[in-house]
Design goal:
Largest sheet: 4 strands, antiparallel
Low-confidence stretches: 235-255, 660-669, 673-680, 716-721, 882-887, 889-898
Number of strands: 60
Strand content: 35-45%
Shape: globular
Number of helices: 11
Structural class: alpha+beta
Length: 898
């Protein structure tokens, strides 16, 4: 088996920090998610996480005017130039200081970066290949404190920079005679936003205390005078009457007065006196629309320059960190970092276009639906979320739990979700009506740490963390059937045998107990291990049980005979990093770590293992060797990422992470002050993998980690894996067989080459009436390969009937042979079922919509026909008789319709 799994998508979190950007077409929004960026296409209902990552969390994103390039800058100032067309990194650059804002000029020729108290203007990368894509043009100084925001004029002649020193500076992007720089005051707090009017030098500045200043300029953009170059000055110099007359004696142009600003008005958002900091602002120049977000989660829409309030709405109970407006001005995007919310609001219709919220705490558990179409996640925030694997969006959230969710499970029907929580309840949710229809509790309050459902979905079991018991309920009645006692330590995990009604429970008492559900709940076997048992899982056929223990060992057992069949030592494969606060090295700390989650692959030949580390290991069970290690994250903003501490952060008192801040630098406030938040803290979460699950289709697997829900898919198009290849099998020979109408031979040769494009070309060349003949004569070795190819091609193909005919013929002619290999063919069948279900839902929605439109059009045409007949009859001489006949006709039509 080739483990060519590539990072596919990031779910579970939709926004962390940084600024939001709309794409050029206005149908997508770009959101920073940790050290990656995700593109949410709300028109086509798709989300995508780019396969590029920065070293640390992204703080700002600059998007080029044409939407093809993006500059990603992380917390340390390291920047990536990314092509949004090819999804590739074009250039690396380091600004060596934290960057607050990046903004391209409207013409796309320059971009400005703000860091410290300066603004740096760079030449924008061109279409040609460059050795250095970031070429510094000018440096602008003026503010005494850090710069915060940037805006350009529409003709790219000037730009304005806001600062924390409550001042706003207007700079010329070129050398102007009457404008070098201009400083504006008038505010009493940090400048949050500064915006030019459309094709004007008039300004709007917004500060953190909720004040808006309107500035009027006495000079237009067309009145800016270019400063002559030195060469031009030398040419103008003349020698008159034997004396030299220099440029200082030249007459100045008549219109060379300097640019002047005048404050035309000042407005305040917090008129009631409530303290509510303004945290984000955006301005749309064409519609004169100002959007402001506040710490309370409220946003305002004002029309400038009259400051007329259009709309006000509370969208969250956390601060709004970022606001962005689409190019057309109809959509507004909001980002709330506290709860991880991303909202797109259409202000004219006052409706949500996109409303997504990830888990704002750690993800703990995940599970795939039986058809692989959905993923359910549970987190420490007490929420259970259901994600669509095709779109990447969360479409339902259950918030009934009041404490951390420890595990989630899917019933075999595919429409019932069960979750266990530390609040002492196990809840069952219905995906048809989106409600909590069962709540299972124990006789005494206890905390449930694990969960398991049997293959029929009728028995629910959950393990206790404090009473060392396993509780068993009936899904139909909700009654407690049995309490299984016998363990002498906390229950760590539960799993049902997929084939038999046998429950395996693991505990910290170094035992695994097998309970027979059909024989009076008796203990069938007790497996003794050498260390505390953390997790156990059954293989898909139920003939093997994998167990992970605290000493880093993975042991494999035959549950029928209670015999150990193999073991893998994974201590040295974890390779965890060193925490900033730890005093022991990573090598010593790894000796005490172990795997906390296990998962069999779809074919049962390999096993995935993860734990308190940034790596996920895949082992071959038969050979008991490590096949591959996946590095989940490269984000240095997380703790325990590096094996060695950075010597630059070491002082004579120890690491800077341990040394407390000086008293003068601590954010202390006097009693009675309403600024600041004393309960806020800054911490680095530690990287870990809490749960691993393989998709039933075998095409992907998912991992819940500190960064979110990571999806890894099998990209077979990138792997050349020939089958039974010889020297005569070439693409030309395949096309030659096609020209001779020998379709079966061409398909066999294409599968022996195993090139996706060539195989697709051969299949689409087969006539529709020849499909049944080809399938009937196809050798059995290639049936499974062709079925797998049809299932994957059906996902994105428009030829639905064509590929469905292939699938129908394959199942009709080779169904009995495939049934004998149900274990290996099951992932392929589930993948085919998932593709058919996805197209069925899309087509059913389209057909329903067309049906409603046709009914509406028929009703309108019938109504207009009646009105037309009535008007014609009235115009006639015998109007009364005509009107009665029309009424009689309309009544007759109504009776017919009834």
């Amino acid at each position: 088996m080739k483990f060519a799994y590539k990072f596919s998508n990031l779910l579970g979190t939709v926004y962390r920090q940084g600024n939001l950007n709309f794409c050029k077409d206005g149908n997508s929004v770009i959101s920073p998610v940790g050290n990656r960026i995700s593109i949410f296409d709300f028109k086509n209902n798709r989300s995508e996480t780019l396969p590029v990552a920065t070293t640390k969390n992204i703080t700002c994103v600059g998007l080029s005017p044409d939407g093809n390039l993006a500059i990603l800058v992380d917390e340390d100032g390291a920047a990536l130039l990314v092509s949004l067309v090819t999804r590739e990194v074009l250039h690396h650059f380091h600004f060596h200081k934290p960057v607050h804002c990046v903004c391209f000029s409207p013409d796309g020729r320059k971009f400005v970066v703000t860091k410290d108290n300066m603004a740096l203007m760079y030449h924008a990368p061109g279409k040609r290949r460059e050795f250095n894509a970031f070429v510094l043009d000018k440096s602008y100084y003026g503010p005494y404190d850090e710069t915060t925001c940037i805006d350009w004029t529409d003709d790219s002649k000037c730009f304005v920079v806001g600062s924390k020193d409550m001042s706003t500076w207007v700079f010329g992007a070129e050398r102007w005679e009457n404008l070098v720089y201009y400083s504006l005051g008038g505010h009493k707090d940090v400048i949050v936003g500064c915006f030019f009017e459309a094709y004007s030098l008039d300004l709007y500045t917004v500060s953190q205390d909720g004040a808006l200043c309107v500035w009027e300029c006495d000079t237009g953009l067309e009145e800016l005078l270019p400063r002559p170059s030195k060469k031009a000055v030398q040419v103008d110099e003349e020698e008159v009457d034997g004396e030299f007359q220099g440029s200082a004696d030249r007459k100045k142009p008549e219109n060379s007065k300097c640019v002047r600003y005048k404050r035309r008005g000042k407005y305040f958002f917090n008129k009631e006196g409530d303290f509510n900091n303004l945290t984000a602002a955006a301005f749309h120049k064409k519609t004169h629309l100002l959007v402001t977000g506040f710490t309370s989660g409220i946003f305002h829409l004002h029309e400038l320059p009259e400051f007329n309030l259009i709309h006000s709405l509370s969208i969250s109970d956390q601060r709004i960190l970022s606001v962005s407006i689409s190019d057309i001005g109809d959509l507004i995007a909001f980002g709330c970092a506290g709860l991880g919310q991303l909202l797109v609001w259409e202000w004219q219709s006052e409706s949500y276009v996109l409303k997504q919220q990830g888990h704002f705490n750690n993800l703990v558990s995940l599970v795939y639906s039986p058809d692989g179409q959905y993923i359910v996640t549970g987190g420490d925030d007490g929420k259970v979320k259901v994600w669509n694997t095709n779109s990447g969006f969360c479409f339902v959230t259950f918030t009934e739990h009041t404490s951390s969710v420890t595990e989630v499970a899917f019933a075999s029907s595919g429409f019932v979700i069960v979750s266990a929580s530390l609040d002492g309840t196990v809840r069952a949710f219905d995906l048809h009506r989106y409600r909590n229809f069962r709540t299972f509790t124990s006789p005494r309050p206890t905390q449930f740490s694990c969960l398991a459902l049997d293959s029929s979905g009728e028995i629910v079991s959950s393990g206790s963390q404090d009473s060392f018991e396993v509780f068993v309920w009936s899904m139909q009645t909700g009654r407690l059937l049995e309490v299984l006692a016998g363990h002498e330590g906390p229950i760590s995990s539960l799993c049902f045998n997929p084939v038999q009604s046998i429950l395996a429970s693991t505990s910290w008492d170094k035992t695994v107990k097998l309970w027979d559900m059909c024989d009076s709940w008796k203990t069938k076997e007790t497996l003794q291990l050498t260390s505390d048992v953390l997790v156990a899982t059954y293989r898909a056929d139920g003939k093997e049980l994998a167990v992970a223990t605290l000493d880093g060992e993975i042991t494999f057992w035959d549950p029928q005979n209670a015999v150990q069949t193999g073991s893998i030592s994974g201590k040295h494969d974890l390779q965890m990093g060193r925490n900033e606060m730890e005093k022991i090295t990573a090598k010593q700390a790894a000796k005490g770590k172990s795997f906390t989650t296990l998962c069999y692959s779809a074919d049962g030949l390999s096993i995935l293992a993860g734990g308190q580390s940034k790596f996920v290991c895949i082992y071959n069970i038969k050979e008991q060797v490590l096949m591959k290690k996946f590095e989940i994250s490269l984000n240095l903003s997380l703790d325990a990422m590096e094996e060695y501490l950075d010597r630059r952060t070491m002082t004579e008192l120890g690491s800077l992470a341990v040394v407390d801040e000086a008293e003068g630098e601590a954010p202390l406030r006097l009693p009675g002050m309403r600024k600041g938040e004393m309960s806020s803290r800054h911490f680095k979460p530690e990287i870990r993998v809490s749960c691993l699950r393989f998709s039933p289709t075998g095409r992907s697997w998912a991992a819940t980690s500190t960064e979110g829900l990571l999806i890894y898919s099998l990209d077979s198009a990138m792997v050349f894996d020939p089958f039974d290849l010889d020297i005569d099998v070439t693409p030309s020979s395949v096309r030659q067989q096609l020209s001779l109408h020998s379709y079966m031979t061409a398909i066999v040769l294409a599968f022996r080459l195993n090139e996706r494009k060539l195989t697709l070309e051969v299949l689409e060349a087969v006539p529709h009436n020849e499909i049944s003949v080809v399938c009937n004569s196809l050798p059995g070795v290639y049936v499974e390969k062709l079925m797998h190819f049809v299932a994957t091609a059906l996902e994105n193909s428009r030829h639905l009937q064509f590929f469905l005919t292939w699938a129908e013929c394959l199942l009709s002619f080779h169904g009995q042979n495939l049934k004998t290999r149900s274990g290996s063919i099951l992932p392929v069948i589930q993948s085919l079922q998932r593709s058919i279900q996805m197209h069925f839902e899309d087509l059913s929605k389209l057909c329903d919509w067309n049906q409603y439109n046709i009914k509406y059009a028929l009703a309108l045409s019938k109504q207009r026909g009646i009105k037309r007949l009535a008007s014609e009859s009235i115009n006639e001489d015998d109007g009364s008789e005509g009107l009665e006949s029309v009424r009689d006709q309309s009544f007759e039509e109504a009776d017919i319709d009834m």
